[in-house]
Design goal:
Elements (H helix, E strand, L loop, with lengths): L1 H20 L13 H6 L5 E15 L2 E7 L4 E8 L2 H6 L4 E12 L2 E15 L5 E2 L16 E10 L8 E2 L11 E7 L2 E7 L9 H7 L6 E7 L9 E7 L1
Parallel strand pairs: 6-7
Antiparallel strand pairs: 1-2, 1-4, 2-3, 4-5, 7-9, 7-11, 8-9, 9-10, 11-12
């Protein structure tokens, strides 16, 4: 009987620890919106979210622009109040609580006039394959997420080249790169945003070396500007 009781207690303890380990790491604190609540919130309304840093685009004059995501959706934080010291702490996966306003610019929904605090927790999103969503109304439902596009074919960027410096080709090395790629007979435009990935990065070099007709896989953030405008962070030629 004692042996059975001891064994029973052992199982209870084991399952207790399993239960603790299985705790939802993305549970929201009191007063914090779920992604569904944030998505439903009206533009210009106050929002409070908890999210995880996925990439940093830029910092100047104590303002940071950051791509973030939780397990349900993504949030673009535009010019959030942030000291240079705190910007260094915003490493990939860092959990932050953000208070600001929901805004929109040229179709891009973002959190504006925000402040933040760093919290315990870490999460790095895997790229969601969005290839099949290109050209559909469902694509925008995943705005700002870290996504991938696979089996795309590089097309003419407009002047017989595989890419352009700036959207109209008027730029120079160090500016944004624009390039076209197609799938299933439809062509889409992609961007290497120079604040996010400058001309010292692997992806910037990879796009400069593309050839029309190359088959590529890509990863990046599903940004919006007058329509879908993915900010690409990785390009692999197949």
């Amino acid at each position: 009987m004692k042996k059975f009781t001891a064994l029973l207690l052992t199982f209870v303890l084991v399952f207790s620890f399993v239960g603790c380990g299985a705790k939802d790491t993305d549970a929201k604190s009191e007063g914090v919106m779920t992604y569904a609540e944030y998505e439903a919130a009206a533009l210009e309304s106050p929002v409070v979210i908890e999210t995880y840093v996925q990439a940093k685009q830029s910092w100047w004059e104590d303002k940071a622009t950051v791509y973030t995501q939780d397990k349900d959706g993504a949030y673009f934080l535009y010019e959030m109040a942030c000291s240079a010291e705190d910007y260094e702490k915003l490493t990939k996966g860092t959990k932050i609580k953000v208070t600001g306003y929901k805004g929109e610019w040229a179709g891009e929904v973002e959190v504006m006039d925000a402040t933040f605090e760093i919290m315990d927790g870490n999460y790095v999103a895997e790229a969601m394959d969005a290839t099949a969503l290109l050209g559909t109304d469902d694509l925008i439902k995943h705005q700002n997420k870290f996504v991938s596009f696979k089996g795309m074919t590089v097309e003419d960027a407009g002047d017989g080249s595989a890419f352009l410096y700036s959207w109209d080709g008027s730029g120079q090395d160090g500016d944004d790169l624009y390039f076209n790629a197609s799938v299933n007979g439809q062509t889409y435009t992609f961007t290497v945003e120079s604040y996010l990935c400058d001309n010292t990065t692997d992806v910037y070099a990879a796009v400069k070396n593309l050839k029309i007709g190359d088959t590529i896989d890509m990863e990046g953030f599903l940004y919006w500007y007058e329509g879908v405008n993915p900010h690409i962070t990785s390009v692999t030629v197949k």
